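Good morning C.,

I know you're traveling, so I'll keep this short. The sequence:
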Amino acid sequence: MMTCIINVKGITVCLFGGQRLRLTREQAEQNRRLIVETASRMFRLQGVENVAVADVMKEAGFTHGGFYNHFKSKDELVTEAVAGAFDSAAKKLSEDVASGNDLQKALNAFLADYLSSAHRDTSTGGCPASAFPVDAARSGKDVQTAFADGIESYLEIFAGRMDGDKREARQRAVALLSGIVGAVLLSRAVKKSQPKLSDELLASARKQICKQRS
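The tokens, ready to paste straight into the viewer:
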């Protein structure tokens, strides 16, 4: 049986058959990233308040006691989870809307995918912009800063694909992001009680937003 202990510097020491096997700092950092990625997925699916630190550590394959050797608090983990989720999502968004020669066609394809039942029902938590708003609103400055920075990264990507001067392009980007995130939030909020309304919210938003861009 192998038991893992994480020391104060984040270096893991494993006891295997009575022998101590010291992991490298790189492996310790990999463990930290795994904790953050696991937390990000769980927070997006279940909400920050509904996921305990012990739940995250167990899902990631570590003991609860090692958590505070990586993070000072749950808020620190939430902040990193939000920031990490946006970093990954923004990178993918940038790649998606820049694919092919027709930028508008690529953006419309992204919007159709975003406003789909598959995204609404994703088992990975989906886009952080539509998964974290309520949690961010109830959190402190650090979490809100990570969320706001993520939103800004989305707006910068969208604005770069908009017509008009810099100010008008940003306004269009704000309206677009607000529309698609709001539609997904509302669709998820009524899915269990009124699935037809849930589908209608997505379909109508998809039709109207894509029509505006044609």
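Safe travels,
E.
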